[in-house]
Amino acid sequence: MTSNVLSPLVAAGGVLNSAYYGSKAVLLEDAVDVGGLPSVDDVFEWIDGSLLRRPYFSVLHDGVRPPDSEVLASRTIDGTTIKGFVDPAGVRRQLDSGATIKLNQIEDWHPLIRAMNDEMNAIFPAESKAYLFYTPAGKRGMRPHRDGSRVVAIQLAGVKEWHLYAEPEQAGARAGLDVDTSQEQVVLRGPGDVLYLPHGYAHAATAVDGPSLHITFTLAEPAPDMLVRAYVAQWVDSGGPERALAGQDPHSSLASVKALLGDLGDSGRTDAETLLQHALQAARTRDAS
């Protein structure tokens, strides 16, 4: 497997590997070399290059998106008009007014981030995705919130002030904005620092003393509905419907339904580890669009 800056931290025995199975936030100072990872100049080159398209970027003012007309443009390619490209001038105006630009699933097109993402997919029982956040000084991209995943954040440039809200009734909850901010811990992260947050750990982050650039990896374990879909997919692939209906009266809908449910409910046809791997494979190969 390709070695990368996170390898010692996420490998067996590494601090992030251990933290993954715990319930506490982990703060690591000067933990990684950010060389080779995106820079602020890279972000503006990608904006000005006009090759970014939805869904690979978002613009956010404290969690609120501006109208598409202010950040999107159309391009004509071989006589066909294609919508959804970044409007460089429009996005720059938004950034000048305090907006954050979020580059989504950057592992799809950045080689080093792809290697980092692939390694986490191989090590953890989760779907890993990478997001890059550029935020102007004194601003935040999102209001206090919980992610429905574990989070590994690496500060690449500037300083980010993280506000952590770890009340017991909030930690481990579902994703959302219903966060009690009355109790908080404030930490500053500079270039090379790493922050790990458990699943559903409420937080917000603000750029201080200048613009900030950080990358976040989200580690999302399959939700119950994904596991059910994986179970059904395995059952179909195994020939379940044909097997269940063999010999059934084709004119009896109720008997057919009972036969299908009976065969589908035969839990001996799979095991938990196989089902988890099928669900993860399906999640990791979803179309980004």
TrEMBL record:
Residues covered by the JmjC domain: 99-236
Keyword Protein transport set for record: no
Pfam families: JmjC_2
Cofactor: Fe(2+)
InterPro entries, alphabetized: JmjC_dom (IPR003347), NO66-like (IPR039994)
Gene3D superfamilies: Cupin (2.60.120.650)
Alphabetic keyword roster: Iron, Metal-binding
Database matches in PANTHER family: MINA53 MYC INDUCED NUCLEAR ANTIGEN (PTHR13096), RIBOSOMAL OXYGENASE 1 (PTHR13096:SF8)
UniProt name for this protein: JmjC domain-containing protein
Species assigned in the record: Kineosporia mesophila
